[in-house]
Specification:
There is one protein chain. The chain is an alpha/beta fold. The protein has a domain of about 230 residues: 3-Layer(aba) Sandwich (Rossmann fold), CATH 3.40.50.720. The chain has eleven helices and 14 strands. The strands form four sheets. Strands 3-2-1-4-5-6-11 form a seven-stranded parallel β-sheet, with helices on both faces. Strand 2, helix 2 and strand 3 form a beta-alpha-beta unit. The longest helix has 21 residues. It is globular. The two termini are about 35 Å apart. Bound molecules: nicotinamide-adenine-dinucleotide and uridine-5'-diphosphate. Nicotinamide-adenine-dinucleotide binds next to helix 1, helix 5 and strand 5.
């Protein structure tokens, strides 16, 4: 493994993974259409690594652009992040999500097959589990996503399972991420949500920065430790390391397709997250309790034994680092990359 194509490599998780890959000596080519990212992330990556990754601005829906890319470069593997990820938007505009996430992935896999590049790490999501019967969640739990975004992830997983059946030479790792938070410790790269954030952490930091007035805590009557929703938050640097581990393990992977939970195995409630942020930053977060957000589940955290055993990977960073790095990124870049 030497040369890797990273789709969506300008995005939040992609940019951190590209940095980890470059630091590990990989030659990286990024393909991104910048629909949810900025080319300004590229010099930031160069600042951190000393190397600016090659970037091709293209849409995965453009099959001929992908063929050109695979004709010019001989990739050993692909890490596939490119996709749309807003649950609410996927409910409003499902066709956009099926087209971008499923049809875009089909184009990519067809180009990989045509150019005999059969090593893939795919960004899946814990949303494929839907509302689990119990926690912690294991990889063999029932898959039952509750929204179009989650269904695009499950569909792609199923397409990949069929590809692996058809040609057992494929080596595919499905990484089911739990809740990515935090940023690179340099404060140079991080998440840049468009408009008002949907996710808890960027919402908290924007309240702390004064961009937003107060946080709504969506429900305090869940059957959890303090009544608020519980999630498995994972530092994006640990997530980037998981991609590196999965990529390096692909040649030894026993089955052509394998799913891995990528979380910490620990669940924190919304109130615990607010408290941890206030303690770390010294900034008070005003909040009110509101109704539950439709479609939310009470509790979700991972059993990560398989990733530990088979990938030799586990999360190392705790809540304090997640808060510190997220806050540093927000404080240094109040306008994102602008
Ligand atoms: P992001 O939006 O920051 O990054 C995705 C990148 O893909 C962006 O740079 C975007 O411009 C690009 N892109 C989207 N559609 C494209 C297309 N058709 N052609 C080319 N480029 C395209 O998102 P992220 O948080 O970094 O997520 C990366 C992946 O991980 C996504 O597939 C997402 O569904 C998945 N995931 C994210 C989370 C999360 O909470 N962030 C959780 C689980 C899974
Ligand atoms: N949450 C909240 N207020 C917000 C955003 C999120 O109370 O403004 C809660 C949400 O109900 C959930 C947790 O924070 O219990 C994590 O939400 P997020 O959207 O970040 O992740 P997901 O729900 O997709 O796991």
């Amino acid at each position: 493994m030497r040369k890797v194509l990273v789709t969506g490599g300008a995005g939040y998780i992609g940019s951190h993974t590209v940095v980890a890959l470059i630091e590990r000596g990989f030659e990286v080519v990024v393909v991104d259409n910048f629909c949810n990212s900025s080319p300004l992330v590229l010099p930031r990556m160069a600042e951190i690594t000393g190397v600016e990754p090659q970037v091709v601005e293209a849409d995965l829906l453009d099959r001929s652009a992908l063929d050109d890319l695979f004709s010019v470069h001989q990739f050993d593997a692909v890490v596939h992040f490119a996709g749309l990820k807003a649950v609410g938007e996927s409910v409003q505009n499902p066709l956009l999500y099926y087209k971008n996430n499923v049809a875009g992935s089909l184009n990519l896999f067809a180009a990989m097959q045509a150019h005999i590049c059969l090593n893939l790490v795919f960004s899946s999501s814990a949303t494929v589990y839907g509302d689990p019967d119990s926690v912690p969640i294991k990889e063999d739990f029932r898959l039952s996503p509750t929204n179009p975004y989650g269904r695009t992830k499950l569909m792609v997983e199923e397409i990949l399972a069929d590809l692996g059946n058809a040609n057992p030479q494929w080596r595919i790792a499905l990484l089911r991420y739990f809740n990515p938070v935090g940023a690179h410790p340099s404060g140079s790269i991080g998440e840049m949500p468009n408009g008002t954030p949907n996710n808890l952490m960027p919402y908290i930091t924007q309240v702390a920065a004064g961009t937003l007035q107060q946080l709504s805590v969506f429900g305090d009557d869940y059957p959890t430790k303090d009544g608020t929703g519980v999630r498995d938050y994972i530092h994006v640097m640990d997530l980037a390391a998981a991609h590196l581990a999965a990529l390096l393990k692909l040649p030894q992977q026993e089955t052509s397709v394998r799913a891995y939970n990528i979380g910490t195995g620990v669940g924190y409630s919304v109130l615990q997250m607010i408290d941890a942020f206030e303690t770390e930053s010294g900034v008070n977060i005003p909040y009110t309790i509101t109704n539950r957000r439709p479609g939310d589940i009470a509790e979700c955290y991972a059993d990560c034994e398989r990733s530990k055993r088979e990938l030799g990977w586990r999360a190392h960073r705790d809540l304090v680092e997640m808060m510190r790095d997220q806050w540093r990124w927000q404080s240094l870049n109040p306008q994102g990359y602008r």
